[in-house]
Specification:
Strand content of chain B: under 5%
Number of helices of chain B: 8
CATH class of the largest domain in chain A: Mainly Alpha
Helix content of chain A: over 70%
Oligomer: heterodimer
Shape of chain A: globular
Order of helices and strands of chain B: HHHHHHHH
Radius of gyration of chain A: 19 Å
Number of strands of chain B: 0
Distance between the termini of chain A: 43 Å
Largest sheet of chain A: none
Shape of chain B: elongated
Radius of gyration of chain B: 35 Å
Helix content of chain B: over 70%
CATH topology of the largest domain in chain A: Rna Polymerase Sigma Factor, Chain: A
Largest sheet of chain B: none
Largest interface: A-B, 45 and 38 residues
Number of domains of chain B: 2
Strand content of chain A: under 5%
Number of helices of chain A: 8
CATH superfamily of the largest domain in chain A: RNA polymerase sigma factor, region 2, helix turn helix motif
CATH architecture of the largest domain in chain A: Orthogonal Bundle
């Protein structure tokens, strides 16, 4: 049976209240309470890092690092935003830092492996092919543009939320999204012409 | 709508209002039709319809918790005064050295009160030797050569030194953090 709207609202309110209890206890140093938060948000943090970095190994390290930073910073968490939004911000910024460091390392070592291939792809053959093409194009975007695209589309955040997460004005996020769409489309059309896929 | 207006519309994420005009233009312009097709396909992929949910790897939570258990929560920053208390900046800045100095004085009073008298005498001697002689009669005329006043002045240097040290430490900490970033 599908739960009614009021039941869903009650359930969400219960989850939030349970979560604020965990946050309070974790602030006081209770690691068991923090574990509950990690269990609840591990998929979210890892998924965001994976979308932004394209590499499972890097994503795991980034998400892990973000949780450790969250644990350290939790006593200073004032509850101005939801815990998930706050954690999101930490993961996104860690992923941006790591992405910039990776770019430098790859340029120095001359390795440009196709990291985007580690992102899970759809099962059907064409879906898989076009999805991997998009992942490759995303990988080629500048960090901030890629971060804006991942947060706006994959994580379904509004422009204002993306701006808060990345610490940018909303107008700058819009500009990043405009440029990212233009670059993605140009790359897509180029590959269409090359491969002749229709 | 012309070609550049259509490109701008695509870059804005294809808001609904101008869509009929954009489609009408794409029907007449093969290049814009290709762009529109590409953008529609990209938007469909980005909207997540074909993306399977991503789950954290097995035992990820255990690995995070192992790191958390050894993590030093206090971090590299010296926090002798809880930052969450809403006090003016100058009270917070003076609180750390003042608290440290108060602790030292209370400990001295409780442990060896005669040490304080000794300390006052020594401080008075030092003051007389280096400060009073150099400043001469002006100092005496102002009544600043009395031992209690001299001790007070000299003790006030200690919190200033401690404050300066902490400001310097935090500045170098900020510098090293920005260098790491």
């Amino acid at each position: 049976m599908v739960p009614s709207t009021s039941e869903s609202a009650k359930q969400a309110a219960g989850e939030l209240s349970e979560e604020s209890g965990w946050i309070e206890r974790a602030c006081a140093g209770d690691t068991a309470a923090f574990r509950r938060l990690v269990e609840r948000y591990s998929d979210l943090a890892y998924g965001l890092a994976l979308r932004m970095l394209g590499s499972a190994e890097e994503a795991e390290e980034t998400a892990q690092d973000a949780f450790v930073r969250a644990w350290r910073a939790l006593p200073r968490f004032r509850g101005d935003s939801r815990f998930s939004t706050w954690l999101y911000r930490i993961v996104a910024r860690r992923a941006l830092d790591r992405s910039a460091a990776l770019k430098v390392r790859r340029a120095r070592e001359g390795t440009f492996e196709d990291a985007a291939l580690e992102v899970p792809a759809p099962a059907d053959a064409r879906g898989s092919r076009v999805s991997r093409r998009l992942d490759r194009l995303l990988e080629s975007l500048p960090e901030m543009q890629r971060a804006a695209v991942v947060l706006y589309y994959y994580e379904d955040r509004s422009v204002e939320e993306v701006a808060r997460t990345l610490g940018l004005p909303p107008g700058t996020v819009k500009t990043h999204l405009h440029r990212a769409r233009a670059l993605l489309r140009a790359g897509w059309e180029l590959e269409e012409r090359r491969s002749g896929i229709e | 709508m012309n070609c550049s207006e259509l490109k701008r519309w695509l870059n804005e994420g294809m808001p609904q209002g101008p869509e009929p005009a954009a489609r009408a233009h794409a029907a007449r312009c093969p290049e814009c039709a290709a762009s529109l097709r590409a953008q529609l396909e990209i938007e469909a992929l980005l909207s997540g319809e074909r993306h399977p949910p991503v789950g954290a790897p097995p035992r990820f939570v255990d690995r995070v918790m192992a790191e958390v258990l050894v993590a030093d929560r206090s971090g590299p920053r010296i926090e002798l005064w809880p930052a969450a208390i809403p006090l003016p900046w100058w009270v917070q800045a003076a609180a750390d050295p003042a608290t440290a100095l108060a602790c030292v004085l209370v400990a001295l009073l409780g442990w060896r009160i005669d040490w304080l008298g000794d300390l006052a005498r020594r401080a008075g001697d030092l003051g007389s030797r280096y400060v009073i002689q150099s400043l001469g009669p002006t100092w005496s005329a102002m009544g600043l050569d009395r031992p209690a006043v001299t001790l007070g002045l000299e003790l006030s240097v200690l919190p200033a030194l401690a404050w300066g040290s902490i400001i310097l430490y935090r500045w170098t900490e900020r510098l090293s953090r920005s260098a790491r970033a």
